DNA sequence: ATCCTAATTAAGAAAGATTATTAATAAGGA
DNA sequence: TCCTTATTAATAATCTTTCTTAATTAGGAT
């Protein structure tokens, strides 16, 4: 990454994620900012989210079969997506980095950089409605 | 799922995955079949891969930031993607389903259906070329 | 304070992955 | 052989994300 400048848009993107709290999608961040700044561009939101993730100010959450999300919580934790309503929630479980690393028998020369652990299920709300 | 019929296309899709062995993308499956059956449609490949996954004959592999893949190996195992060349490899580590389940403190009323554990890194080939 | 340069922007096109639509075909039970 | 409906090929559409381009602007140098 070369030099980065402080722009209003970058601040708006970071602030939007902090305001929206729970793992917003880039689309949600875009819509949130648009209320006050209707001319912001979606590409700007995507680009700045990536910059902020690269800088370590946000965490990227990879969500299978759906738009990715960003998390303002920097502490390692895991997520679950309801396959019915699509919402993403935090899992209540401790960090497993140590356990997972210790289970790798042979890296086969790979430089392992990161891992993702992600759950899928049905949230209580949607469970109820099925009856 | 309603009644399913046995079609030539379905067989071709399954056989292609078995032939290609390592976690092909739908695109790769499509290209493989096309060599012998140039009129097969990409939609047919996607649909049948989904049907075969639903039937439990193949495993779906969710790959962050890239096309998903299917695996002909049905035994639970994990994958790593080289962020440089994009190739996907098997991890050499035992199943962790028990450990992961036992770490969940509170499901908060969620019906947890499945989890995915996925690694990212740089493969030995690409590591070498960086020097 | 003014200049300069490269990072950044808005707007929109483009790319990649996947699903939906539609009319025609065909699997497989009656 | 007939009938119903799952399935197909072809293609459009959708969703997510990145890229392109000309104009703007941040912030260090003058």
Protein described:
With 131 residues, chain A is of the alpha+beta class. Chain A has 5 helices and 5 strands; from the N terminus they run αααββββαβα. A 3-stranded mixed β-sheet of chain A has the order 4-3-5. In chain A, strands 1-2 form a two-stranded antiparallel sheet. In chain A, helix 2 (26-36) crosses helix 3 (42-54). Chain A is flat and about 50 Å long. The termini of chain A are far apart. Chains A and B meet through helix 4 and strand 5 of A and helix 4 and strand 5 of B. Strand 5 of chain A pairs antiparallel with strand 5 (111-122) of chain B, so a sheet runs across the interface. The structure holds a DNA duplex (30 and 30 nucleotides).
- What distance separates the N and C termini of chain A? 52 Å
Class by SSE composition of chain A: alpha+beta
Order of helices and strands of chain A: HHHEEEEHEH
Largest interface (CB within 8 Å) is between: A-B, 38 and 38 residues
Q: Record the strand order, biggest sheet of chain A.
A: 4-3-5
Helix residue percentage of chain A: 25-40%
| Topology, number of strands of chain A | 5
Summarize the biggest pleated sheet of chain A. 3 strands, mixed
Taking Cα atoms only, what radius of gyration of chain A do you get, to the nearest Å?
17 Å
Mean pLDDT of chain A: 95
From the spread of the alpha carbons, the general shape of chain A counts as flat
Q: Output the number of helix runs of chain A.
A: 5
pLDDT < 50 stretches of chain A = none
Note the beta-strand portion of chain A: 15-25%
Q: Oligomeric state of the chains?
A: homodimer
């Amino acid at each position: 990454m070369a030099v980065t400048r402080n722009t209003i848009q970058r601040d708006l993107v970071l602030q939007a994620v902090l305001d929206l709290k729970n793992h917003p999608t880039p689309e949600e961040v875009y819509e949130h900012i648009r209320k006050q700044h209707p001319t912001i561009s979606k590409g700007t939101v995507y680009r700045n989210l990536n910059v902020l993730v690269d800088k370590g100010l946000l965490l990227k959450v990879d969500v299978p079969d759906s738009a990715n999300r960003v998390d303002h919580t920097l502490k390692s934790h895991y997520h679950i997506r309801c396959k019915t309503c699509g919402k993403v929630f935090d899992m209540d479980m401790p960090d497993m980095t140590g356990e997972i690393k210790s289970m790798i028998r042979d890296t086969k020369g790979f430089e392992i950089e990161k891992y993702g652990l992600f759950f899928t299920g049905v949230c209580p709300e949607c469970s109820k409605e099925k009856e």
